[in-house]
Amino acid sequence: MLDLPLPSQETTRTFELTQRQKEVRAVFATAAKYFLIYGGSRSGKTFLTIYTIIMRMIKAPGSRHVVFRNDGIDAKQSIGNETIPAVLKLAFPGLTLKWHDQDGYYEAANGSQLWLAGLKDKARLDKVLGKEFATIYLNEASQITLEAFSVVQTRLAQVVMQTNGKRLPLRLYVDLNPTVAAHWTYQIWVMGVHPSDNKPVPHHAEQYRHMTINPADNANNLPADYLQALAALPERMRRRFFDGAFTADDDNALWRRAWIRRDSLPEYGRIVVAVDPATTNNPGSDETGIIVAGQGGDKRGYVLSDDSGKYRPEQWARRAISLYDTFGADAIVCEVNQGGDMVEAMIKAEARGRVIPVIKVTATRAKHVRAEPVAALYEQGRVAHAEDFPTLEDQMCAFTVDFDRDAQGYSPDRVDALVWALTELFPSMTRAPKKKGLGPSLPNAGPMMGPQSTGWLR
Fold first, then answer.
1. Is 247 domain-assigned?
2. By 3-state DSSP, what share of the chain in percent is helix, strand and coil, each rounded to 5?
């Protein structure tokens, strides 16, 4: 990452924000402290917020500011390598920001700092959270948990003076492409209710502001065919990435938010890593669902990790093995409908001679048939989540009996992996009922999956 130019006041005058960005900037100038900016894809949310932060750096020598994303690599690549250079080139082509790679921050000539950090990077996060900041920015908050938000906002406490002799007001900015209305951002900013206890947020009217900014507001800076492509997306994706609208949970979904409980895993029995692999890693490809779940000594199920994402085959195999080691799992459960022997071969190749138990499962019934008994476990209070898994939980509460992946614009791969994991941990739910004249049921076959085979990879 190179040192980047920072602005001179003269060159800044020639730069023009879009009309909607100017309107949002006017809201930023109010006395409120907490700001939510949500809307569609490439609407200029991140650009405007970084622009605002750099202006604050200039006004207050020695001030500290931080941008958080869920993943530190994303923060460096997206914000550090793309947005900051773009903002500086267009709006601030005069002075210099110096990058300190070891600590992960930019420094201006006046001593102001702009830190970039990932909430999943525990080692570096502790270092960042040891400081106080005048500005905190949570970028792509749909991937960030309520717990993380609650922790980082405690660091919004730096007392620093502006060049005009006045104290720099503390500011916290949050942005996202809106997800479901149950998300903590919507509950706190729009509804004025804190999700942890459903009580009103103190000083909500005075301190909280939310604004929408959409791709159409940034049309002059976007190709026309890009906007056309967004407008043509399936309905649920179009509402999120073009209309910039939060979506309610589906009333017909198999899961309800109220059923999803938080609890830590007590003394446990089995732990499994479940994988629902995608066969390609192209821009339009499905995600690979990767879920870790365990059964506690209390006979309840616990979801311990959601590491789903877009991976190449060797990447998801390595990730599954890493989670197998991290959690001391008993086996890796893999759906083999699409990948067949390739799925087992990928894990064997990445195991590099180690013994990794693999349970191969084949879907023989519709997704909702496999999912219904698992949703019932949640309703009965027999499953808890060890932490917030926002994307997984959004998928769960949007998954219906007649779920249409083409209409929704995505495949519920995280839910699939969740179902495979909990099905393996609660085998009694997978046994088919006896049918007269057909003999006894197979011990591991039934409505949830076809016959299993366990491979011990060497």
1. no
2. 40, 25, 40
Contact (Cβ atoms closer than 8 angstroms) between residue 59 and residue 165: no
* SS3 of residue 382 by DSSP: coil
pLDDT at 282: 59
DSSP string, 315-362: HHHHHHHHHHHHTT-SEEEEE-TTTTHHHHHHHHHHHTT--EEEEEE-
* pLDDT category of residue 457 using cuts at 50, 70 and 90: very low
Paired with 130 in beta bridges are none
pLDDT tens track for 31-44: 999 999 999 999 99
* Amino acid at the residue 204: H
Q: Does the reported pTM lie above 0.70?
A: no
3-state class (DSSP) for residue 284: coil
Q: What are phi and psi of 252, to 5 degrees?
A: -95, 5
Residues 284 and 314 in one domain: yes
Both tokens of 274, joined, read 């479940």
Considering only CA atoms, which of 237, 212, 144 is closest in space to residue 183? 144
Same-domain pairing of 419 and 360: yes
The number of distinct structural domains making up the chain is 2
199-200 and 193-194 as β-strands: parallel, antiparallel, unpaired? Answer: antiparallel
Confirm if 138 and 144 have CB atoms less than 8 A apart: yes
- Polymer length in residues for the chain: 458
User: Does residue 432 surpass a pLDDT of 70?
Assistant: no
Query: What is the spatial distance between Cα 399 and Cα 393, in angstroms, rounded to a whole number?
Result: 10
Is 127 found in the same domain as 199?
A: yes
Beta bridge partners of 289: 276
Please check whether residues 182 and 72 belong to one and the same domain. Answer: yes
Q: Are strands 105-108 and 113-118 parallel, antiparallel or unpaired?
A: antiparallel
Q: 105-148 pLDDT, tens per residue?
A: 999 999 999 999 999 877 778 888 999 999 999 999 988 888 88
Residue 85 neighbours by CB distance under 10 Å: 16
Domain span at residue 383? 257-431+441-457
Q: Which pair of structure tokens corresponds to residue 44?
A: 């200029």
> What average pLDDT score do residues 4-15 get?
48
Residue 408 lies in a domain: yes
* CA–CA separation, 385 and 293 (whole Å): 9
Q: Does residue 413 register a pLDDT over 80?
A: yes
Alpha helical stretches, state H, 156-312: 184-185, 204-207, 224-231, 235-241
Return the residue matching tokens 């405690």.
154
The verdict on 236 and 262 lying in the same domain is no
394 burial (CB, 10 Å; 0-12 / 13-18 / 19+) is: buried
Q: In terms of Cα–Cα distance, which of 424, 274, 277 is closest to 346?
A: 277
Co-location of 225 and 286 in the same domain: no
CATH of the domain at 90: 3.40.50.300
